[in-house]
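User: Predict the structure for this protein chain, please.
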Amino acid sequence: MQTRAPHVVGRDREVTAITGALGHTRESRGGAVFLTGEAGIGKSRLARYAAGHAYDEGMRVLKGRGTTIGPMVPFRPIAEALLGLFRGEPPDDSALGPYKPVLGTLIPEWHDHRSTTESVVVLAEAVLRLLASVARKTPCLLVLEDLHEADAETLAVVEYLADNLEDQPVLLLATIRTEPGHALELVHRMGQRGSGRLVELHRLSQDEVGQMTAACLESELIPAELVDRLWTDSAGNPFVIEELLHGMVSGGLLVAGAHGWQVLGELKLPVPAAFVRSVAHRTDRLGPQGREVLSIAAVLGHRFPLSVVQKVTGTDDRALLSHLHAGVAAQLVTPDEPAPDWYAFRHPLTADALLAQLTPAERVNLSWRTADAIEDLHAGLPGDWCPLVAKLRFDAGSPTRAGLLFAEAGKRALAGGAAESAVTLLDRAQSLLTDEARAEVLDTLLPALAETGDFERAFALEMKDLQGLDGPLRAKLHTRLSRVAYLAGWFTEGVEQVRVARTLLGPDAPDELVAQLDVNSAYLTLNIPSPDRISSAAGLAKQAALAADRAQLPTVACEAWQLLGIIAREQDIDEANTCFSKALALADAHQMPIQHVYALVRLAGNDWLRHGSTASLGRTHAEACRAGAITVAHNVDAILALQSVLTGDYVVAAEEIDRCLRTTTRLRFHALTRYLLMAKATLAAHRGNRAETDDAISEFEAVAKNGAQEYPLCFGLARAFCALLEENHALAMTELDRALALESQNPTTFHLSGTHGMRVLLGVLDGRFGWPDYWELTAASASGMRWNRQFTELAHAVLLGRDNRFAEALEAFQQAQEAAELYPLARHLGQRLIAAEATGWGDPVSWLRSAEEYFHQATIPAVASACRGLLRQAGAPVQQRRNGTEQVPRQLRGHGVTVREFEVFVLLADRMGNKAIGTRLHISPRTVEKHVASLIAKTGQPDREALSTYAAALSR
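Assistant: Here is the predicted structure, written as structure tokens:
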């Protein structure tokens, strides 16, 4: 006789919510539903109903769940669900691009030893893209059960999915117990912000208990006293109702007769004692060996592998399967699909009830024997076995062995990108260990805390008990803390940790300890203002590289050479390439994929800066995609977007920037988001759109910290160009001076802010810079980078022309034009800027005609007008332009204001005089005066002051 309800009872509201969500999902309006409630309330039953309904509707169903087998295993529920995609025809991976190798963390078929370890957010994006790719063919239901047992990384992926499934044919259905914890807090937060729907399951009413009892017993003839007793003892919990019914039927207390079910005896067992006794009664009927089998299974957790149980008990296959079949018949355990060698207790409360029957000595004995069996079966304890055996050793009363295993599991989790799980495991380890063993754990725990951003906790770790250890071991921990401080931006604190470490090491410390300390010190030094920080950081990095080479520490050596390359790039790009090439050689020799890709992208970046070529960047992007280095791939995308701006491909640039910004914002790549917002501001500026330029820079400032290295580019590459396109050369120079001031306060690794290019040209043109200044300003290799070179060569041509060295001036101009060939805006702007200086040696009229045509077509009227003015001054005929009326505001067009009058009107907003306006527009002061008089008459303003006030108000 079955005592399980064959259908869902008392859940009409919940069923309606689930079926509605599935219907929306089939219309590509996915989302997330979270079923919450106490243990046994029916969450899993509803999840099974949802899976069956989805399957009937032709949807694909993927299932995974958290587990209490040992400590939490990173990503287990997600991995289990995704592996369901590979039990038939594998999914199409063509749309995943660089995200496929990232999924190797979860999908063994896609694992590549060359792939890099990315953040949990990147992994979540990869999971999202895989689900979306699968669901494009068949809408998908992803069922994740028991999230209260899931690790922090799984919860992070769940949150990311819930936030981004709205427009996908994918529904996430998760079950969570209403017990205090991170999972419950998370789903409540997601519910509050609308990222998912919370469906809380309540206990059944007394009527619903009666309905469920009738369904379980397959009869409407149910004694009233039975329903009353079940209602009282179960408190409306469906699982307890079923367990009590099963115990009553199997124990002979409830029997079926001719007139329905009858109670024999007195119903008075309390709950949970009734449930525990029910489980005990059923296990006793399995015999001593059957009970031992299930007790060992309970020690393992709510799920258990048959191989381990068989090893501990020593039973043969036939006997083991006989006991398991009896357990299934007693409705205690069930096969754990789809794993063939695994079983699970029907409910976690069943395992808890079994454990409650063990004496402490019995539990210690079983835990020890089970741990020994697993170590015999799985040499090296790969994967989930390591944290499981650690828990068993702890339960068996061996804290030291448990601590060492927790430490090993934590190291593996950190290496696999699961930093939060690593912190949990390592924290458990350091609480169990002492002296040198604890110090070794802290050496891994500190970077794990840094990875999770928990910097304050890293510095709050208790280290007083380590005072008795030798100096080098303690110095190693302070070296780790200096790295944590650098990552946290606590540079002064980092320097103090370096000082403490050096004191502990003394003057004759071995290279293997000094190398990492010198690298950390170099990065810290580079970020603390001082006149010699660049040279000091370079010296420390050089020391670190040499020490790491002697000590055979390739990772440290790579870090040092990468930093040396970054520092060298401004002064000597060849030296920078040499440094990056050394880092690349080390990475290849020692199979370090992340260092390999970073060295490649920096070499490609140098090629782009020097030659303007993106070919190497394209190859690097492909390599990053193959390795799953998502951060690097998006870094290249951002550079290519800026290249599109500089080369005048503005439509493509806008699309690339918007696409990349959506991704980097979602993935929380803050540095790349800053870079893209700078590129967005540059795009607006190079289009001559002041309002959009200012808006983009405001966005940048909202997300950037003080001293962000991209900030100078917002002034020199964006605002300065916007000012030049407004023909406001003084403002442009002010913006470039601001960029230089920012770089002086915080040296940047970006070199296109104009301090090495456009500022040199404008300074030469306005007489601020002569030959000595020119040679000083162009001595650095940054001035030879292609974008900068077009301006420094123009400055060179102007200086040569002033010295009457006309042939050399023309040659310098031609070199500038070769450099500027890629950059149409900059090329024509340069021609307009130096035309007045080239009368004796160049062809200014041709240059101005070309520039005027370009800026007219680009609807940048101020520069086009300036070119026409210069042509008139040169006595050359000027083509009349009647376009531009659309730039005049509607209310002014209604007054009959012309394009030229509007240009004067705009400058009146700044209270400029006739001479200043004439200089800006290349017309005479007298002509300006005529336009002002006409504007006063047309707008009905009483005088020039009122007209200026009106202009200022309209410009806002």
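Strands lie at 31-37, 60-65, 140-145, 170-177, 197-200, 254-257, 260-263, 303-305, 333-335, 342-345.
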